[in-house]
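Example for tutorial group B:
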């Protein structure tokens, strides 16, 4: 547990939030830097998972669980910046429920949220998570215009 806390301390972190379990992906970058890789919390390459067990064995929506949100908040609190990934809408949107929890109970953690993005979190691979982290933490990749210009706008070079 202490190792996973140190991996996220002051770093850009991606959290894939669902009602049954959430996955915390630490990156190798601090806020303002472009992440180059995801950093797993164990030698086998597994990322930190926070599970919701009580009363929700199949992962379907149920009333909010303060214990689950508290544990997830404690896992994310040391991060420098947080990108949220969620896949629901309305009551089924776990990331919105977590944001509501931290805005009420831990505003310091809520202030670290960079974006809350709707994606198919069940089918994302590590490379796609890294690309989303790069996009939201460092902006879109520079564009190769094919004529030697990288990242310039048309107004910069007429």
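The residue assignment follows.
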């Amino acid at each position: 547990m202490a190792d996973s806390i140190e991996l996220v301390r002051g770093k850009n972190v991606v959290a894939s939030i669902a009602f049954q379990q959430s996955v915390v992906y630490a990156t190798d970058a601090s806020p303002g830097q472009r992440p180059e890789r995801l950093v797993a919390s164990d030698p086998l390459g597994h990322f930190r998972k926070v599970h919701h067990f009580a009363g929700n064995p199949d992962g379907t929506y149920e009333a909010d669980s303060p214990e689950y949100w508290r544990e997830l908040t404690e896992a994310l609190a040391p991060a420098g910046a947080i990108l949220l990934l969620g896949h629901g809408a309305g009551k089924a949107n776990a990331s919105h429920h977590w944001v509501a929890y931290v805005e009420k109970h831990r505003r310091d953690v809520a202030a670290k949220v960079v974006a809350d993005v709707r994606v198919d979190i069940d089918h994302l691979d590590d490379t796609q998570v890294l690309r989303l982290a790069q996009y939201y933490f460092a902006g879109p990749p520079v564009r190769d215009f094919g004529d030697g210009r990288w990242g310039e706008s048309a107004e910069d070079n007429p």
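The longest strand covers residues 21-27. Compare this with the pattern of hydrophobic and polar residues in the output above.
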